[in-house]
């Protein structure tokens, strides 16, 4: 019995076994894009020990993304490039930015982070205007002016 107790004490439990609890952090929480700078980056980090993978589970149809690495450790974050497809983004009539939400899900966990993407909303260029006047002279002729 003494030998069994000795073996269990020294070999049964490993000192270096560490419980990991990877935790996802995504930044920035809001990404502001413009119609002249319509690409930005989001960083996915692990703020605890261990590693995890993540998935982008939802996004507006006017946003595309590129992420080459989805495995994240404490010392190896992932960078996601976000691009606004201007042909799909449209404009808000009220002049407010076009907004969308990207959802990041930590695989194997309930960890979810949402990022708001804002695309500026300048008033589209108005078509050029011109003036055209038609009038009559005292003699009954038509007088026209175009500018």
Secondary structure blueprint with pairings:
Layout: H1 2-11, E1 24-27, E2 30-33, E3 39-46, E4 51-58, E5 63-66, E6 71-73, E7 78-84, H2 86-89, E8 98-106, E9 112-119, E10 132-136, E11 142-146
Parallel strand pairs: 2-9
Antiparallel strand pairs: 1-3, 3-7, 4-6, 4-8, 5-7, 8-9, 10-11
Report on the structure:
- The chain is mainly beta and 147 residues long.
- Helices cover 10% and strands 44% of the residues.
- The chain contains 2 helices and 11 strands; from the N terminus they run αβββββββαββββ.
- It has helices spanning 2-11, 86-89; strands at residues 24-27, 30-33, 39-46, 51-58, 63-66, 71-73, 78-84, 98-106, 112-119, 132-136, 142-146.
- The strands form 3 sheets. A 5-stranded mixed β-sheet has the order 2-9-8-4-6, with no helix packed on it.
- Strand 8 and strand 9 form a beta hairpin.
- It starts with a helix and ends with a strand.
In round numbers, the mean pLDDT is 82
Number of helices: 2
Distance between the termini: 109 Å
Q: What structural class is derived from the secondary structure elements?
A: mainly beta
Which geometry do the CA atoms define?
rod-shaped
Using DSSP, what is the number of strands?
A: 11
Share of residues in helices? under 10%
User: Strand arrangement, largest sheet?
Assistant: 2-9-8-4-6
> What does the largest sheet look like?
5 strands, mixed
Compute the CA-based radius of gyration.
30 Å
Low-pLDDT windows of residues: none
């Amino acid at each position: 019995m003494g030998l069994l107790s000795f073996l269990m004490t020294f070999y049964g439990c490993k000192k270096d076994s560490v419980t990991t609890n990877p935790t996802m952090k995504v930044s920035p929480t809001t990404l502001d894009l413009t119609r002249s700078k319509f690409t930005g980056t989001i960083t996915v980090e692990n703020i605890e020990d261990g590693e995890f993978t993540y998935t982008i589970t939802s996004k507006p149809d006017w946003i595309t993304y590129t992420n080459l690495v989805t495995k994240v450790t404490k010392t190896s974050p992932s960078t996601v490039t976000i691009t606004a497809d201007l042909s799909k983004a449209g404009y808000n009539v009220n002049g407010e930015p076009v907004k969308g939400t990207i959802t990041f899900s930590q695989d194997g966990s309930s960890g979810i982070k949402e990022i708001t993407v804002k695309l500026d909303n300048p008033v589209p260029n108005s078509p050029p205007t011109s003036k055209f006047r038609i009038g009559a002279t005292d003699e009954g002729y038509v007088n026209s002016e175009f500018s």
